[in-house]
Design goal:
mainly beta; 4-stranded antiparallel β-sheet; globular; 11 strands; about 120 residues; single chain
Length: about 120
């Protein structure tokens, strides 16, 4: 029932920009914390940026000042605006939704299928 669908990936030259979108369904989007992760081949999946239900944001050091995460609760969508892209930004970018609950575990999280971002030099 829960579905996260990423879009907006593609091929961009160094210094260019991309805007990723993640459309969520099957969850109460307005109370979910949303995050973007990325994973390059053979590498660990890293947190890129997150935004709480209240709109507070957090960024990894390697994207701070270049990327902006935002959300539109009316559209059940989270965005990642990526500027000044570098070849090292090349990865599959994944959307994650986290909901804190009352009960065992205290949380539930969900993942999208990922969207490829490739930065050429």
């Amino acid at each position: 029932q829960v579905q996260l669908v990423e879009s907006g990936g593609g091929l961009v030259q160094t210094g260019g920009s991309l805007r990723l979108s993640c459309a969520a369904s099957g969850i109460m989007f307005g109370v979910a914390a949303m995050s973007w992760y990325r994973q390059a081949p053979g590498k660990q999946r890293d947190l890129v940026a997150s935004i709480t239900s209240a709109g507070s944001t957090n960024y990894a050091d390697f994207v701070k000042g270049r990327f902006t995460i935002s959300r539109d609760n009316a559209k059940n969508t989270v965005y990642l605006q990526m500027n000044s892209l570098k070849p090292e930004d090349t990865a599959v970018y994944y959307c994650n939704a986290l909901v804190f609950i009352l009960g065992p575990g205290g949380r539930r999280d969900y993942w999208g299928q990922g969207t490829q971002v490739t930065i050429s030099s």
